[in-house]
Design goal:
Helix content: 40-55%
Strand order of the largest sheet: 1-2-3-4-6-5
Largest sheet: 6 strands, antiparallel
Order of helices and strands: EEEEHHEEEHHEEEEHHHHHHHHHHH
CATH superfamily of the largest domain: Transferase(Phosphotransferase) domain 1
Strand content: 5-15%
CATH topology of the largest domain: Transferase(Phosphotransferase), domain 1
CATH class of the largest domain: Mainly Alpha
Number of helices: 15
Length: 368
């Protein structure tokens, strides 16, 4: 479905394209009767022909229909146009958490208020059995009035049967992904708390807690590396805040906060020590460090069933596992979703091998 400004879809006129996410493109639209401006989300052409992505989009609509919270972007309508499912949502004027952090330094009271609003949204969603599974700065909007809006429930998991994602299948943004998600295990509410811990760590310090020269290094870091406590990077961060974030970043889910409400209470306790008029103007949190490489993986282009089966994935996985272990299965699976060219998969997979000699040996094995 080619979309242009001025075009009409249902009762809505397209005003402008706002951007694109993992599942669809988003447009600003105006309702023909009420004249209210809203946001319309439509599956990208590359996704629309894929049965799993269509089903995932439908489930996002159904998930959002169960949610009614001031800190979650609201669903207004959903309908079919030319056999294409269309979602109409609340139009949010503001900026993402990532854009806010890149634009200027933030104060501690401001950061704590943002954290509390996100946690209130998670308390509500988790209470209804909804796990977001992709908490990250670009999925968090700050309105012009300073209100937080949690976005993009495209890979959210609601309680009940029929879950699309199988164990061992990697979804989400790798720099914000919990250790259990990296290993391919089922995400839980505590997985969201880990991802929020990463988000708050980056928002407060300007740095990601886990970094690496390759996706493999980042994945292994989430599973094994203990980050530097936030207050050691940014001294303006009180120790209790640093402790709360480090608890959210625990490798074992059992060592994290049991619930979003418990995490929220820890934030409230600290925030109570900083009156609203306290701006810490002389101790603003440091500006962010711009990463030299992409810190997020976008939702990959799906590979058709027949195309994926024709790829020598088991062979590539077996050879890669010699150098990086069982995580090779997840990496090869993800690479196969981005490309159907075996040579390209080999080249990208080789980048996950730390040793130059081992990387060369792996590439040589392509023709053995």
């Amino acid at each position: 479905m080619a979309i242009e400004a001025g075009q009409t879809i249902g009762d809505y006129q397209i005003v402008a394209r706002l951007g694109a996410g993992g599942l669809g493109a988003v447009y600003e639209v105006r309702h023909s009767i009420s004249q209210r401006r809203e946001a319309m989300k439509i599956l990208l052409p590359t996704q629309a022909g894929t049965a799993e992505m269509v089903e995932r989009f439908r489930r996002e609509v159904q998930t959002l229909a169960t949610l009614n919270h001031p800190n979650i972007a609201a669903l207004h309508n959903a309908f079919y146009s030319d056999n294409q499912l269309v979602m109409v949502m609340e139009l949010i004027h503001g900026e993402t958490l990532r854009d806010r952090r890149l634009r200027r330094s933030v104060t501690l009271p401001e950061a704590l208020d943002i954290a509390a609003q996100i946690l209130r949204a998670l308390v509500y969603a988790h209470g209804l059995g909804v796990v977001h599974r992709d908490i990250k700065p670009s999925n968090i909007m700050i309105t012009e009035a300073g209100e937080i809006k949690l976005l993009d429930f495209g890979i959210a998991m609601a309680g009940g049967p029929g879950e699309l994602t199988r164990a061992g299948y990697l979804l989400g943004s790798i720099s914000y992904m919990s250790p259990e998600q990296v290993s391919g295990a089922r995400a839980t509410t505590r997985s969201d708390l880990y991802s929020l811990g990463v988000t708050l760590y980056e928002f407060l310090t300007g740095q990601l807690p886990i970094t690496g020269k390759s996706d493999y290094e980042i994945m292994m870091g989430h599973m094994n590396q203990i980050p530097t406590p936030p207050h050691e990077i940014a001294p303006a961060i009180p120790a209790p805040v640093s402790v709360a974030i480090m608890r959210a970043l625990a490798k074992d889910p059992a060592d994290r906060f049991a619930t979003a409400e418990e995490f929220l209470e820890a934030i409230r306790t600290v925030a109570g020590n900083f009156p609203e008029q306290t701006r810490l103007s002389d101790a603003s949190l440091p500006p962010p460090v711009r990463p030299s490489r992409s810190s997020e993986w976008l939702q990959p282009k799906p590979v058709s069933g027949s195309g994926q089966q024709s790829l020598p994935l088991e062979e590539i996985t077996r050879k890669l596992a010699v150098y990086i272990g069982p995580v090779a299965k997840i990496i090869v699976k993800r690479l196969a979703e981005k490309s159907q060219d075996p040579d390209a998969i080999y080249r990208e997979a080789a980048k996950q091998i730390p040793s130059d000699a081992d990387r060369t040996a792996f590439l040589r094995s392509r023709h053995e």
